[in-house]
Design goal:
With 315 residues, this protein is of the alpha/beta class. It contains 11 helices and 11 strands.
């Protein structure tokens, strides 16, 4: 039995056969004949000095040696594929793949992208609207924009301004509820997407910020922040909306924020990519645009008394 690694083609044939538990299906995946695939696996078994499959009447099953090898072979090919994809991305300065949460994508990014696209017609921009944790070294993603407080060690991380929250409602509903006290009788909307935070701000915190001891428990609850805001636009009730998610609806008059007191959160958005990737032309261009867009609307915070959440909790 040799300590040398066997040929990559033989390992690839074994990996496909172990995943499909079928030589015929593995051969179809690799675009070779079943006989060629069987030859590769046989050569691998000879290299090992032990069988990897039991050949049954119309099926195959892994031997103990095969079961030992299969997970490592699968992981190895996945890592190799990811490394190759990442290396190819380094040579591509025209494609940019960005992942951001569904709420930020719908309410902040998508309405603004026309300007970036107009200024950078050479960049093919792709978006993945998901909160799934991404491995930027393995997944086919260049930039992740994520919200919260996290350990970004091992990544290039650029935090932007802290988020704040304030009550928002339709103009029609604002005529009915004109004081903070009146919100105790209003239909309230709850944004449960903030449950990912260790200390999520809630309606009780906002009421405390304006000097009202009230702990509302009932109301429409949404797992996505943009759905909660859309419900407020539709007049369902009053939402405690995050700055980035409510900004466009405020600017265009679909929502109003009549009470100029906001809760500042510790959590913020971060621009993430692999170390060194921030210098790639398309990533640098998108980063600069992203930061500039945030700063362009920063003056809207001047209209509010912004109370840090930790001060509310300590009081």
């Amino acid at each position: 039995m040799s300590d040398r690694l066997p040929p990559l083609t033989a390992l690839r044939a074994f990996d496909a056969a172990a995943r499909h538990m079928s030589f015929a299906q593995a051969a179809a995946e690799l675009n070779v004949t079943p006989a060629a695939l069987s030859f590769q696996i046989k050569s691998l078994e000879e290299h090992l000095g032990a069988p990897l499959f039991r050949r049954l009447n119309r099926a195959v099953e892994l031997t103990e040696a095969g079961r030992t090898l299969a997970p490592g072979a699968a992981e190895g090919f996945q890592a190799l594929s990811a490394a190759w994809s990442a290396t190819r991305r380094l040579q591509d300065n025209t494609t940019l793949t960005v992942t951001a949460g569904p709420a930020l994508t719908a309410k902040w990014l998508a309405p603004r992208l026309y300007e970036f696209a107009r200024n950078h017609p050479d960049i093919d921009l792709r978006f993945s609207a998901t909160l799934r944790k991404m491995d930027l070294a393995r997944d086919d993603v260049d930039v992740a924009i994520r919200f919260g407080i996290a350990d970004d060690s091992g990544l290039y991380s650029l935090p932007v301004r802290k988020e704040w929250m304030t009550p928002v409602m339709s103009p029609e509903l604002a005529e009915e509820y004109q004081t903070p006290d009146s919100l105790m009788e209003a239909p309230l909307i709850f944004d449960d997407s903030l449950a990912i935070l260790d200390n999520p701000p809630d309606w009780q915190d906002w009421f405390r910020a304006v000097g009202i001891g009230f702990s509302p428990l009932h109301g429409a609850r949404f797992s996505n922040a943009d759905h909660a805001v859309d419900a407020a636009v539709a007049g369902v009730g009053v939402a405690l909306g995050r700055r980035a998610i409510i900004l466009k609806d405020l600017q265009e008059g679909r929502l109003v924020a009549p009470f100029k007191v906001a809760i500042e959160m510790e959590a913020r958005f971060r621009f993430l990519c692999l170390p060194g990737a921030e210098e790639r032309p398309q990533i640098a261009a998108f980063r600069d645009w992203f930061v500039a867009e945030i700063e362009r609307t920063a003056h809207l915070s001047d209209d509010f008394k912004i109370v840090p959440l930790e001060e509310i909790i300590r009081s």
